[in-house]
Amino acid sequence: MSEQKINQVQFSAETMELVQRIIKRYPEGKQKSALLPVLHLAQAEFDGWLSAPVMDYVASILSIKPIEVYEVASFYSMYNLEPVGKCLIEVCQTGPCWLRGSDDIVDHLEKKLNIKVGETTADGMFTLKTVECLGSCGTAPMLQCGSDYYENLTTEKVDTLIEKLRGSDQRSTYMKSNMQEI
Amino acid sequence: MARLLEHINVPGIETFDVYRKHGGYKSVEKALKTMTPDEVTEEVKKSGLRGRGGAGFPAGMKWSFLDRKSDKPRYLVCNADESEPGTFKDRYLMEKIPHVLIEGMITSSYALGAKTSYIYVRGEYMYIIRILEKAIQEAHANGFLGKNILGTDYSLELYVQPGGGAYICGEETALLESLEGKRGNPRLKPPFPAVAGLYASPTVVNNVETISAVCSIVNESGDEYAKIGIGKSTGTKLISASGHINKPGVYEIDLGLPVEEFIYSDKYCGGIWKGRKLKAVVAGGSSVPILPADLILKTAKGEPRLMSYESLSDGGFATGTMLGSGGFIVMDETACIVRNLWTFTRFYHHESCGQCSPCREGTGWMEKVLHRIEHGHGHMDDIDLLVDVAKKIEGNTICPLGDAAAWPVASAIRHFREEFEYHVRYPEKVKNPKHFELEPFRSEKVLATV
Amino acid sequence: MAKVTIDGIEVEVADGTTILNAARQIGGEVVPPAMCYYSSLKDTGGKCRVCLVKVTQGSAKDPRPMPKLVASCRTPVMDGMVVQNITSPEVLEARKGVVEFLLINHPLDCPICDQAGECDLQNLAYEHGAGKTRYEEERRTFEKVDIGDKIKLHMTRCILCYRCTFVADQLTNERVHGVLHRGDASEISTYIEKAVENDFSGNMIDVCPVGALTDKTFRFKSRVWFTKPLDAHRNCTKCSGKVVLWTKGDDVLRVSARKDEFGEVKEYICNECRYDHKNMGDWTIEGPRHIDKNSVISQNHYEKIDMQKLKLDIERQIQFQKGKQLPETNQSPA
């Protein structure tokens, strides 16, 4: 993917149609408003991260300057500017989750996956990250993978979850399946 | 008076048909067929409804500021970028009864004269976005959205916009920037969104819960709504309860409920977990001042503290706090105030947009100092340094994130200074991250006898 | 027109004028400093917060004070407004705080920085900074990058005023650099190594308040106070051709645009004038550039000293120290 050139990056016809529908949600000339949703689509379609050619491609679709895309993509925490594993595990660690044991969940995941926070397993299956409040404080501790929340976690539940996720690819679950229902 | 969560347990309430059967979309019918837009606004004013996102600004007044003379289109934007630590009520509401928000959006858009409205949902709530998209589709199919709603000449399109992961987009002007496809940098005010908001057009931005409350206000009148609650805290409020309690979750309370009842009643939080004692509460989301057990249960004057805007702020910041977003975070005797504060400050450091210097530099500085203290590398001077840095951020930034980062630091030191000093004095004892779980920090001052 | 009182001095200004610009019309000590605002660049300002002032009376109509300190560069005056700048201890305390924030992650590399001697942050720190730092954490650092072949970006020194991005937006036809990431990880960058190629890109160097963007053709050639600045011009088809030549003997070490007493460029110059005419013969010399007497550059005595003026200045200083009323000469040079 990192070797990709802009002319090799291309949304599927289906996604392209969706992009065109999204652009129509905003007034004429305000197509830049579609940038955040289109970046989610791009990330879902191109292996879960935004390479420079992918961002340049998005800029060309929305008729904006590439720098406008870089500025936005690097501002928001959900856009990955580097490759991630097929399952990106994001554990919430802010106050309310910490009060209910998120540190134990992170420790357990580090041991189980044999990686540190911020790393990806050698087989490219899992990336482990800690994130700030995901709005799931009443069901803490919790983690997000793909578009799903996994809540009221215990170390046993984490074990079951990891086995369930192993072998799957959660990178495309953001946005796409949802938007296709429109 | 209908509560927001009245039908929460009805099977299938997330679908249009069941929601409609239980009185759903009546406010749209009533407003569009029997009321003028100004009459709807008038009811909202009478209701005394205050913004439920955190600031508590009267919603009717906000609506009345909208520049109705402008020839530009007007917009209603729903702020569903719920990201204040300790707050998850909007997510709960949108997940369980999405149609109450859609209904509120239609009725409110009509009142404001908006032809296109947006619901800006934080990007992480992707599954909620799916639920809302589906609800919008159903509303369309049943003639409540689109051209000539219910045969009237009012038309409305409603769209869901995902965020990209940024707490700052909960600040209304940052949200509008984000909706325009830009970085979430808050704008300098004036101009206010009511005059120049989305695409420089007159715009109202309201929280999910605020907009949802409009349904009951229109159905049963503003005066009826104002009968619930206490004083200027009218209506019901969704409280997100989390932390060391037996029953975390979202509760709809009538404003004015005693805090003690909220914490200890089985109807709500069900008391402190594991039979432990209450140590402290952050009552309105991570930004508001933390209060020790004695001050959260009773005001400094010794009156019972109530869940209302006025009672929670009684005593100012010296002995009071704020209702904020209603994110009620409870800590038992084993909680480390310093470590909890460090996680909050790390959060603000992570979420600062970086536009203005006090917030960009100050949040990171505070986080680093707190990290040192919590990990046994602090000095006594650090405590006053934190107070001073917080003071220099507060009030001097473009948007309220600076205040939000400063208040928790200032209040934690105000009420729990001994505990910070303990960290400096006994570095070996705090090296284990679970230090107070092993041996709770004892101070007669902070432990309630309840 | 609106009447506004700043630190007890009344001035009448056009409606819509900002507090900062009203203060600049008065001149002297009451002018708030500005690190991000730049009058000729639209939408700049509001970010650095060094220009915060206290509004003790909102207007004649609504005399309530404003609840918080306001950014004077972005707050328009109202008729009857009363403002405190240097007469408010609260403002001075806040400004001291902002300066400290700007410095905690700023490298103390003035001895090797080309901007030293003409650096707004240096001046600000001198006036409002503390003698010693309270910051003991590790400072933020970035790699140095080239933005095109003539500009060096030293992000570690950047205070994120955003001025250079406004230059790119407003003076050049395509902005290729911007602010990436967020919070204290924000950086000015091009993301992918892309050159800034444009006739007016060099102006980014002049608007930079610190040594984050420097002229590669001048880097490490000389300390600025060892140069003699001369006003000069040439016939140029792209710009006004009015520049300052920074010279040493017969050598032109650097060409820059002319700045006013508030450190702002009024007429931007093109890259050809800036980089391609380093021969004295290319220019019509007008005479020495007037530099503020407090600047280290004027310590070089390249300009003939006006003994009469110097005497008045010294007198004024003595009276000021005694706490007496400032005499008439307390006007910034126009």
TrEMBL record, chain A:
GO terms for cellular component: catalytic complex; membrane protein complex; organelle envelope; organelle membrane. CDD domains: TRX_Fd_NuoE. Pfam families: 2Fe-2S_thioredx. Belongs to the complex I 24 kDa subunit family. Its cofactor is [2Fe-2S] cluster. This is NADH-quinone oxidoreductase subunit E. GO terms for molecular function: 2 iron, 2 sulfur cluster binding; active transmembrane transporter activity; inorganic cation transmembrane transporter activity; metal ion binding; monoatomic cation transmembrane transporter activity; NADH dehydrogenase activity. [2Fe-2S] cluster binds at residues 92, 97, 133, 137. Transmembrane segments: none annotated. Binds 1 [2Fe-2S] cluster. Keywords: 2Fe-2S, Iron, Iron-sulfur, Metal-binding, NAD, Translocase. One of its GO terms (biological process) is inorganic cation transmembrane transport.
